[in-house]
Structures are given as C-alpha cells and as structure tokens.
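Lab channel / #folding
Pinned by the channel admin:
"Please post every new chain as: sequence first, then the structure tokens as a reply. Keep commentary short and put observations after the output so the thread stays searchable."

First post following the new format, from NK:
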Amino acid sequence: MKHRKYGGSTAARTIACPGWHKESEGIPRGTSIFAETGTALHDCMERIILEDLDPEYFIDVQVNGITITADLVRDKLAPALEAFNTLCDTFGVTEFEPEVECSYAEDIGGYADIVLWAPETRTVIVADFKFGDGHQVMPDDLPQAKFYGMAARKDSNAKDMFDEAMGFLAVIIQPNERGLETLRTWDADIDVLDTFERQYLQAVKEAKSKHPPIAAGDHCAFCPAAPVCPQKSGQALRALRMQPDDLETLSQSLELVGELKTWIRDVERVAFEQLNAGAPVEGWKLVPKRPIAKWDDPDEVTKLLRRRLGGIDSITDRKLKTPAQMRKVAEQRKVLHNVEHIFEKHVVKTSSGNTMAPESDKRPAVLSGDALSSALKALS
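Reply from TO:
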C-alpha cells in the first residue's frame, strides 16, 4: 500500500493541529499487537465480503502473522459481518467496493475500508471497520469518513458512485461489549464534502508552512509527536504551578489531567522503546522487573498437593464466572436459548459507586451522599 503523508486516520488531528506533521519528523512510528490484530481482522473482512466466506473459515488461520482465534471470529468478525449485511439491507445497497484506494493529491489520500452506493436515496456510504476494544468511535461529523469521501470522489475506483449522489452516510462498524450498537451511522447532504474539502486543504496549507500552528486537545491521542510536543510540556509545567487543592483552579486542573495522563504514557512508551532498541536516554536505564514466584508445572503441583493439603478446594479458588463470561460459554455451546431465562431472572446491574465525568457526558448527574445529606438537613 502506498503511504501518503496526509491521510484519513489523521484528518481530525491535521485540522486541529496542522503542526503535528512537522513536530513528528524523525520520530519512529511504533506498532502493537492490538494494531496488528486489527489489520489482520480488516484483511479477513475484505475476503469475507468479496468471496462470500463464512467468518468461521478463518478460525486458527494465520493472517499477516496473527492467528485468528475462535474468540476473534465470534466477538469481532461475525458481528461485523452481521452489521455489514444489515447496512446493505437497510439502505438498499446495490454496489460496493472494499479497500478503495483514494487519491486526492500526491501526498493526500489513503484507503477507505469500503465505499457503497444506495441508489434509492442516491446516497454514497463510506464505512469503516473498527476492531479495537478501547476507544469507541462515533461517526457523527467524522473527519476520517469525510476525508475518504472527499478523496474517493476525486480519484478512486468508486468515483462514479459520486456522480449522482445527493446524500452522504458515514458508518462505523465496531463490535463491542459496552452496550453500544455495532452499526453506527451519520447522514448529511453530499455538500458536506465541499465544506470539509475547503477546511482540510487550508489545514494542509498551514501544515506545509514554515511555522505551522500547534494545539493540544483530544486529537493528541496516538500522535507520535506527543512525547516531545511543546504544547504538552507547557501544559505539564503549568500543572506543576497549580495547587491541587485550589478550588478556584480545580476545574482547569481537571481539564489538564486527562491530556497529561495520555502524554505521560506516551513519554514512558517512547523512552522504553528507545532503551529497548539500545538507544541511550540520559539518566535512565533498563532493569529487570521484580521477580514473582509461580509454579513451573501447575498440573504436576496440583497432583502432588491436593491430597496432602486436604483436596482440590484447599489449593484452588473456585469463582463463578461473570454474567458476560457465562453468556459466552452458553453461546459457544449453542445452549443460550435454554438458559436465557436464568440471565433474565438472576442478573442485576449495580453501580460500584460514582466517578467524575465532563459535562458533555451523556449520563445523568447524581447527587453525592454528602450533598444529599446536606440538602435533607436544609429542608428539615
């Protein structure tokens, strides 16, 4: 695949912080088992769609060095295919192109997971498969989707789908266990791509300037420049000057906490990668972690100790699986319909307590115990 400097996955960051490209120059781009697994699952989905394969075809198959397990098929590929089929049925899709190479300019472009055409509503659909368990992506006004729409209509093998388009639909297909829908959509008029195009090209122009602007925010997540970003280090110095118990600046301090937590993790990750690669990091070195005692052969130790120490219950801990884990067991054994009534009758959901969230969080606010007590006293 051809790599372009300005792509879809970084579109939001480029708009918010054009300077991140220049700040990232010379910084190695790492990968992870999670990213590699996601890429492998994308490749599986492309074949499943193109070749009309059953997801179970990939069980125990190695794809780009990643073994596709039965769990991955059940939890990721199968629900993703179901969501894709629902998308096609719901919107009357008659044509689609997976893994679409989109070229806007020599350094602007990338690969859209799949572009689809719904003739009844004259809508172009740009869909993206997400297989991560962490950050849940919403399609609402998503720069990545609009980027691929902009680039695909300029130059791609799906270009003709845009000729008579009046609507644009951004789609995220992300299997998850958080209670969110696997299939998420956001619709707009096709003109939304014109507005985005002007905004994005202006950001690229600024990124190519001698002193491109930089700005910190949510877009800093996964930015390779985060560990060395002057905006981030400036925020850290600002935080050090703020008193944690100063109620007048508490709200400002909380805003810094989330961004600095991510920055701290990024700094530690890059430093660890450098030391592992043999590169010096002044004042730091690699040392072995604290050793933890463990059995060399658990099965053999179980045989030796179960009789001498009073049976299996005295040497092992038995614990009932959680409702979510038990549901998976029932699904694997294909007996969920036999025990569904047990889940309905005996599963209760209780909160473990309160936590902080920004005002933008959709959950309703609760009154703390202390606040409730004070309110009751005021009424009495």
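NK: The two ends are 71 Å apart (CA to CA).
TO: also worth noting, DSSP finds 13 helices and seven strands in the chain.
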